[in-house]
Amino acid sequence: DAIEAYDQNLAGIVLSNHGGRQLDFARSGIEVLVEVAAKLKELRGVTLPSEKFQVYVDGGVRRATDVLKAIALGATAVGIGRPFLYAFSTYGVDGVDKALQILHDEFEMNLRLLGARTLKDVVPEMVDASCVHSHIVSVPSDRLYDSNYETLQGARLKEIKEKAKL
């Protein structure tokens, strides 16, 4: 569909599964972005991001790191909705302001960690997308937690002993 949209001289596309993550193994917008960017480059010689053909990613974006990954992989912009919906439904306008401040602070910190002054400095080499289609994320074990906390024991029933009356 992305190739067809490009061939029809459309301004761009939105990659979204609109709740499709509730289906087992439905692909996320970032997974589709990796494929779209590769196919546009391979079949049409278009490198994303592109002024001629813009690609927006919607869905699954929760933090600044999600935005930075999408931008690095070629997205023009991303849609962030759910965090602000939660913030507004719980704390109103103040919640949205706080969520925006958190997002701003995350951007600032993560751009520094990447060594990027602006979003234009965020490039594909900053993201390892080689396993994006495997749905597997390597998570290190927490040895500190394992060594400092005891395992929760299950409930045990007390034995009721009748006292013998003498």
Overview of this protein structure:
- The structure is a single chain.
- The protein is 42% helix and 8% strand.
- It is mostly helical.
- A 3-stranded parallel beta sheet has the order 1-2-3.
- Helix 3 links the parallel strand 2 (54-58) and strand 3 (77-79).
- The longest helix is centred in the middle third of the chain and has 33 residues, at 82-114.
- The mean pLDDT is 86.
Largest sheet: 3 strands, parallel
Strand tally, please? Answer: 3
Structural class: mainly alpha
Which percent range describes the beta-strand content? 5-15%
In N-to-C order, the SSE pattern is: HEHEHEHH
Helix coverage percent:
40-55%
Instruction: Identify the overall geometry.
Output: elongated
Give, in spatial order, the strands making up the sheet with the most strands: 1-2-3
How far apart the termini lie comes to 88 Å
Rg, alpha carbons: 24 Å
> In terms of per-residue confidence, which ranges show pLDDT below 50 for 5 or more consecutive residues?
none
What's the number of helices?
A: 5
Mean pLDDT: 86
Protein name: FMN-linked oxidoreductase
Organism: Auriscalpium vulgare
Overview features:
single chain; 166 residues; mainly alpha; 3-stranded parallel β-sheet; elongated; FMN-linked oxidoreductase
Outline the secondary-structure elements.
Blueprint: H1 2-7, E1 12-16, H2 29-44, E2 54-58, H3 64-72, E3 77-79, H4 82-114, H5 143-148
Parallel strand pairs: 1-2, 2-3
